[in-house]
Amino acid sequence: MLALRLLFQNKKYFASAFLYACTSLIFSTWVTYIPQIAEKIGITEGRIGQAIFFSAMGGFVMIRICRHFVDKVGVGRYMYFALIAYCVSFYGPFLAYDYTTLCISLFVFGMANSSYSIALNSLTATIEKQDKVYVMSGSHGFWSLGGMVGAATGSFIAALINSPIVHISIVVLIILIIQTRLRKQYYDRRGELQQLGKPKSASMKPLYVIALIGLILMVSEGAIADWGALYLKKIIFLNIKYIGFGYAAFSLAMMIGRFTGDALSRRLGSWQLITYSCLLGLVGFLLVLVLNPIVSIFGFFVVGLGFSVVVPEVFRLASRIEGIKTADGVSFISATSNIGFLIGPVLLGFIAELKSLHLSFMVLTIFVSLAFFIALWQYKKLKVNQK
Fold first, then answer.
1. 195 in the Ramachandran plot: left (φ > 0), alpha (ψ -120 to 50) or beta?
2. Which is the most buried residue in 37, 61, 119, 269, by most CB within 10 A?
3. How many other β-carbons are positioned within 10 Å of the β-carbon of residue 355?
4. Closest Cα partner for 263 from 78, 80, 135, 86?
5. What pLDDT is recorded for position 46?
6. How far is CA 366 from CA 62, 130, 275, 350, 363, in A?
7. Which residue from 15, 20, 6 is spatially nearest to 134, judged by alpha carbons?
8. In 10 A of CB 38, how many CB atoms?
9. pLDDT the model gives residue 368
10. What does the alpha-carbon distance between residue 48 and residue 139 come to, in Å, rounded to a whole number?
11. Orientation angle between helical segments 270-288 and 357-386, nearest 10 degrees
């Protein structure tokens, strides 16, 4: 818990870390309302999966655009503007009145989400390098904290208020007030100004391997976020009041794992930790597939525990590749991971439309198996090179 203590004791690290909680709080609130939005517009799992694909397209569009703006205006300043854009775009899916407007609103939401993600992880990597601290995993722990709070309370608040617009307005207002007060802690941060030239192919190969693992894990994480509630409702037949508990359990485990991730990384090394984590995530998915409410929710918890440190470690590895600028490596991983987070729900939607959500989660289990074998291969290769 060293990272957690550092983040809470130092306001400038807490300010940037809390940005992770803000984005996950928004996203988990959106997740809670997916079934209601689908019902309001009158579309099936497959159709909403297709709509969410527009969110992935929006995220893809922002990959190169965002990097140029980060360099031009500074990573701290751009981070604050990206937060405002993300909050505004959050209203889009809730105001959609048919399938077309839903697709358009999700495209814009995906652009804002991708921009936010790239700016935030670039900011955290910049802080780590400039201040010589390790806060990446602990900062991602705040993402899990926000997701846990949003998922655990979202269903109850939604039922109490009975007005999605009022609900999300309260969330957005709280976030903007807090971050406006905290922004001076990171607003003037700028990244590296020196250029390393075009990366060599030898430098890009390890980045591609790291990105592939991040992509697979974020495909699975995005699928859990967007389809976990529907899975518990339609496959497990859980009462609608408790369908947010799966994602809440997942986020709780992610929070626990990430607040201890920096210490584990120093002890085990990144690749060994990623290998063990993927294996634990695989076990969790096998539990999710069991058609029992308690076992399935516990499975979401185990998956979260396994996934918790993978993404922070992937960012850390990408920022340390020789021959690649730190911000470029982080941006590349952030972009590919974010696309995976958005594509995952689309893939599950297509499979659910053809067969069932249960089969969709079986496919996710296979994906996580692939990530485990890639990590194991890389870890064994690293051990051989060290001998």
1. beta
2. 119
3. 12
4. 135
5. 66
6. 30, 39, 15, 17, 5
7. 6
8. 17
9. 94
10. 31
11. 160
The token pair that represents 208 in the structure block: 């591609």
Closest CA to 78 of 26, 129, 23, 115: 115
In a domain, 194, yes or no: no
pTM of the full structure: 0.77
Q: What is the pLDDT of residue 202?
A: 56
Domain span at residue 300 reads: 10-188+201-386
Which residue from 54, 131, 140 is spatially nearest to 315, judged by alpha carbons?
140
* Residue 322, in any domain of the structure: yes
Single out the residue of 7, 303, 256, 19 nearest to residue 141, CA to CA.
Answer: 256
Q: Which residues contact 322 (CB under 8 A, 6 or more apart)?
A: 203
Determine the pLDDT at residue 51. Answer: 84
Mean pLDDT of the region 200-219: 81
Tokens representing 13 are 């690290």
Please report whether residue 41 resides in a domain: yes
73: domain CATH number is 1.20.1250.20
Distance CA 166, CA 15 (A): 26
CA atoms in the 13 A half-sphere facing the CB of 39:
6
Contact 333, 315 (CB under 8 A): yes
Are 94 and 295 a contacting pair, CB within 8 Å? no
Distance CA 25, CA 149 (A): 7
Q: Is 318 exposed, middle or buried (0-12, 13-18, 19+ CB in 10 A)?
A: buried
The winner for highest mean pLDDT among 80-94, 232-246, 331-345 is: 80-94
- Give the three-class secondary structure for 30: helix
Non-local CB neighbours of 57 within 8 Å, separated by 6+ positions: 107, 110
CA atoms within 13 A on the CB side of 189: 30
Q: How many residues does the chain have?
A: 387
Q: Could you count the other beta carbons within 10 Å of the beta carbon of residue 254?
A: 29
Q: Are 278 and 306 in contact (CB under 8 A)?
A: yes
Query: What pLDDT is recorded for position 93?
Result: 92
Domain count, the chain: 1
